[in-house]
Hints:
By secondary structure, this protein is α+β, with helices and mostly antiparallel strands. It has helices spanning 5-21, 37-47, 52-65, 69-74, 77-84, 91-106, 115-118, 126-137, 146-155, 166-176, 182-195, 214-218, 279-285, 324-328, 333-336, 351-363, 412-421; strands spanning 235-244, 250-254, 265-266, 293-294, 299-302, 307-316, 368-369, 396-400. It starts with a helix and ends in a 14-residue tail after the last helix. The structure holds iron/sulfur cluster (SF4). Iron/sulfur cluster binds next to helix 9 and helix 12.
Amino acid sequence: MAKTGTQSSCSKALLAWYDRYRRVLPWRAPAGHRAEPYHVWLSEIMLQQTTVQAVGAYFRKFLQRWPTVEDLAAAPQDEVLAAWAGLGYYARARNLHKAAKVVAEEMGGRFPDTAEALRALPGVGVYTAGAIAAIAFDRQEVAMDANAERVVARLYAIQTPLPAGKAEMIIKGRALVPAKRAGDFAQAMMDLGSAICTPKRPSCGQCPLEEMCEATKLGIAETLPVKGPKMVRPLRRGAAFVVRDETGAVLLVKRPEKGLLGSMLQPPLGPWTEQFPKRAEALGQAPFEADWKKLPGIVRHGFTHFELEIELWVAAVTKHPKTIQDCHSRPSRAQRGEGKGTQVEMSGKSQKEKTIHTETRRRGERLSALDKDGAASLPGSPSLGAEEGASPGMTEILWVATEELASVALPTVMRKIISHALVEEGPLFRAGNKA
Length: 435
Ligand code: SF4
């Protein structure tokens, strides 16, 4: 499509501005050079739902550890998840690993060079495919992230509220992309939205597009893009159970592969409902009977679709439950007999188990596989201590030494919970390893 004069002057002005003010970012190639597709893909997956500031340290860590897509593909998934821990939206990490395998094993280590083919990779949607195709291969593709959306909405004074307005923004944005330097143009839009065309108080006086900007002429720049009604996020509440053994190691369980925080680790949890469980209810949700103490305070965490508040219960044990079934398939009070003692019998450590346990504390590896029979997953429930006493799809338990907690696959919410429970230990998770 032939470009109008305005479209052409807009892209020229923006590229000239970019040549002067482009940001230096760890994944960007120097001016005049084509970026490495692996770097572009890795950074774009990390940047989905996450800020440039948060991504920098993770990007460097991944490249240092897995310099090529083949290295990443060959890594165990648990190691990739552990390295991702703190960055959030963990489905991205699982898809990242799957896509690395596809590229390494089925494509000879070469990323596809069109947006259409890139979209076939796990975790690559319309925006990401456009961004990689433009930045890594200079394809004439549009990359409409939130920054670019804002610039285009203002440039054309698009007042249709999001998400309906997005289609128009993409059409207008695509028409601006020049035939040459499409990658620089995509990054220029991102930089302009980040530095000049900011959500509040845009610096229109310093903007290379000021003379062409409809929203500035109308005096409505700050009102655009128009957002749809804000979604009210429901509040869920529950209990977490932080258990330590005589060495101080913490009991963790691995979540099922599918669903919220899939394949990540957590301390045992009760179900998340509208209200906190009362004392007797919480003790019924505990993974086993012990001298549970409730800690003062609450841990809060915001997920995309709900807010979470967690109360904490802590206990120390001298023997390990052998499997998660030992934790949850305890006899009912009737089966045990009322008044005949309340301590559930837990298996002692065999010599073999002891060895694995020691290795687990050293390397954060698996303690023991679990019997999945009868493990009834509750749809949508992220909990371990489900109402039926089942373990919904939990597959592994581990005892992890406190000094190893920062290097295992614990999502931010679980780090908050453990930090709160072990507050006397000092900072467990250092800056740069958190989202
Ligand atoms: S003139 Fe202002 S509102 Fe328009 S694109 Fe530039 S910074 Fe954004």
